[in-house]
Structure of Exocyst complex component:
Amino acid sequence: MAQESKAVASGSGKEENRENQIYENVFSEIETLEWPLGTSLRSVYDDQPNAHKRFMEKLEARIRNHDREIEKMCNFHHQGFVDAITELLKVRSNAGKLKVQVTDTNRRLQDAGKEVINQSEETIRCRIQQRNIATTVEKLQLCLPVLEMYSKVREQMKAKRYYSALKTMDLLENTYLPQVHQYRFCQIMTENIPRLREEVKEISMSDLKDFLESIRKHSDKIGEMAMKQSQQQRTFNSVVKKQTNNSNERKLYVANGIVPGHIDIATSEQLQDDEDEYEEEVLTAQDLVDFSPVYRCLHIYTILGDRETFENYYRKQRRKQAGLVLLPQSNMHETVEGYRKYFNQIVGFFVVEDHILHATQGLVTRAFTDELWNMALSKIIAVLRTHSSYCTDPDLVLELKNLIVVYADTLQSYGFPVNRLFDLLLEIRDQYNETLLKKWAIVFREIFESDNCSPIPVANEEEYRMIISRFPFHDLELEKQPFPKRFPVSQSVPEIYKEFKEFIYASLKFSESLHRSSTEIDDMLRKSTNLLLTRTLSGCLQSLIKKQHIGLTELVQIIINTTHLEQACKYLEDFITNITNVSPETVHTTRLYGLSTFKDARHAAEGEIYTKLNHKIDEFIQLADYEWTMTEPNGRASGYLMDLINFLRSTFQVFTHLPGKVAQTACMSACKHLSTSLMQMLLDAEVRQISMGAIQQFNLDVIQCELFASSEPVPGFQGDTLQLAFIDLRQLLDLFMVWDWSTYLADYGQATSKYLRVNPSTALILLEKMKDTNKKNNIFSQFRKNDRDKQKLIETVVKQLRSLVNGMAQHT
């Protein structure tokens, strides 16, 4: 038990020590820590249920301990405190005495220093005035340059020296005004400087507008001078080249031992005149226009830092002016002066731009001028393409071409690309050729109108040689004939050949100065000549052939003329070759199409001959007056037919100068048409009855036609070829006159049939007309046995013919 109680006592003692240690720690934290005590107090109250009471007891004990320590401390230091108070009381009495002494000393000192103070204040006041005067002088020295600079600005503005004024303003604003910025007049100056700059900008912009208006008015003159210089340069170069060629020729003569009889003095004089004129009249854009406003305005805007605005404004205005310059007058195409004024304005515009490009840095750029030029070039090409299409005068078109060449050379000398202009000239060349073709169409028509369509008579050698010189005609038989004699061609042939040469010369004029090779020029000439042949001359020939008043004799002469013109085409090719010096053996050389042109004209003339012959035959046929119900023939051929045959004989005699096939074809065509017309006369629906007497009379007329065919009106037919034109009529008439129906019906369809060319339908129509005639004229024939048998035979043949016709219809 004693051990257990001892153990219990030992345990409770440890517990109490641990609790005291905890409170001790809490008190230490409360005394030493500065942050909130919630955490420390919570550790006390959360430990056990009666912790608060015990804690308060411990806390009170702790407070009593501290009070005892404080009391001990105070008791220890009390004597020292009392001694210190005693010492302070002694010091206070001494301090009072010292204060009285100091006050007395200060009074005496103040009384003694009043005079010094007065003198010092006067001295200070004088020093302040002196300092103020020095400061004022210094400030005035700073302000005087500002005022002088501002006055200088005013004077420069008044003298219109705006660039210098801007420089002075810049110096005033950046150098002088900052030194005296605190003064009011400087602020006024500072406020006025931007207004002065704006005033300078406005004035310079006004000058620029005046400059733009000036160059717009003078662009015509500038362009005129530039194009004149270019023309003079081209002429000068041409003369130099010509003189060089002459010099080379003289060297060649000397090398061959030949001394030339004279020197081309005229060429030298012309060269000297051109040099003098070129030197005297050299005027540039600077001579005609004062460019200083644009330079001044550019510098001003550059200084003001607004160069981009100026550049944009200048370019915008020049674009507008370009648009105005490129607008043509509505009647520009009527005269060459209209085109010249248009070109002068454009050239003047771009000469100015080229000068601005090279005289300023960046105001206009090459890209800007190229853009303007490309825009202008497209507009110019469209304008020229439109207005040149209105030109109907080839001389005006040629002058326009020369203007365009000078215009292109002028702008090319300033560095502008002009290839598209030369491409346009190729288009205008086509327009020029069209106007030439129209002009020569009138010339050809006048030649044909004045031509008498008869061979050219020559009475002597001189007249003969004159014709030979105008037209390449070579005929040994004609040369051997005595005078007077006749050329086979009419007067129009040498005139047309001469006009061909004139056309080639006119076409060549346009090809000059186009910077084209000889081969290209040769090709142009040949193509334009081909157009003259295939379109103009061919059209005029066709119109001539189709005219109503042209007779057979004139048509024959046209065929002869076209034959000789076709032969002359090779001489035209040689003529072009001599002009261009291009060998005809060149691979791409264009040939003249004279063969097809004149062949077509001859075919048309031949066709017109055939048509007129047939028309004349129709006129004779219309005079025919057969009595289709006659009982007996007249015993002689009809008068109209004899007149027709006589006409054909006389006509075919004129055809002796025609090519053989043409005359033969015309003769065969006439015979076939006559045969067809006679056949149609028999089968005419209006002819309802035909008697055997009418058939016999008709046979007499056909016999005369056959005799005409066998008389060989045109040589060259083989055998009875021409008589075959009437074979259909002959077999039909033989069938009815012999009344050989049994043979016809038996041999029908066989190649050896005697009446092979007789068509059943044709025979049926004619037989029915004869049947109706027999019924009308022989009312009482039924009482005679022979007539009854013949009528039955006709009816039988009609039935068989109808069956043949129906069979043919079913077969087809």
